[in-house]
Amino acid sequence: xxxxxxxxxxxxxxxxxxxxxxxxxxxxxxxxxxxxxxxxxxxxxxxxxxxxxxxxxxxxxxxxxxxxxxxxxxxxxxxxxxxxxxxxxxxxxxxxxxxxxxxxxxxxxxxxx
Amino acid sequence: xxxxxxxxxxxxxxxxxxxxxxxxxxxxxxxxxxxxxxxxxxxxxxxxxxxxxxxxxxxxxxxxxxxxxxxxxxxxxxxxxxxxxxxxxxxxxxxxxxxxxxxxxxxxxxxxxxx
Lengths: 113, 115
Fold this sequence. Notes:
Largest sheet of chain B: 7 strands, mixed
Structural class of chain A: mainly beta
Order of helices and strands of chain B: EEEEEEEEEEE
Distance between the termini of chain B: 37 Å
Shape of chain A: globular
Helix content of chain A: under 10%
Order of helices and strands of chain A: EEEEEEEEEEE
Helix content of chain B: under 10%
Shape of chain B: globular
Radius of gyration of chain A: 14 Å
Strand content of chain A: over 45%
Radius of gyration of chain B: 13 Å
Number of strands of chain B: 11
Number of helices of chain A: 0
Oligomer: heterodimer
């Protein structure tokens, strides 16, 4: 199984940058996902990393270091609508080559004016 | 992106009754769907993996007779909460895998309240 750890909550002001860290311990690894979830809604996909390095997608970037079991999600130019929970999820080495996602507890990001 | 539709979005039922939740992939075929449960301010807990045409694979601690999963077609999986009790009240979310894409897509979720 996996142990996935991320901070519970982070607060930042509009226009600022916030970095959400995620560490994981896994018996098998087949990629790491970041999802955004607004209260009462389903998660929406943000990013996917399977190789080491940085993936940039607009205001959001995600980094992965497999040797360290570490990832972060970087949110730039924060907007009020970015207030949400951000979920780190690890895909294990499933028998069907795709596997299943195990989620961290999520980091609640609060953006203040 | 691919669309997954989950229905109903909210349901209130009496203790002892059963509730069926549907998860449909609208524009792709999903050989695998996943059912999650989420408690307030907690993360998603994987309940089971649903494979089209075969029995679901349940995670440890999840009662398969309590949470019946059927995946009879490539676009539909259902979760039936049988003999519901107040402790079954939760947010249930499905996700479906499109083989041509890396990520899984989530339904809108179902808020179940058992009274």
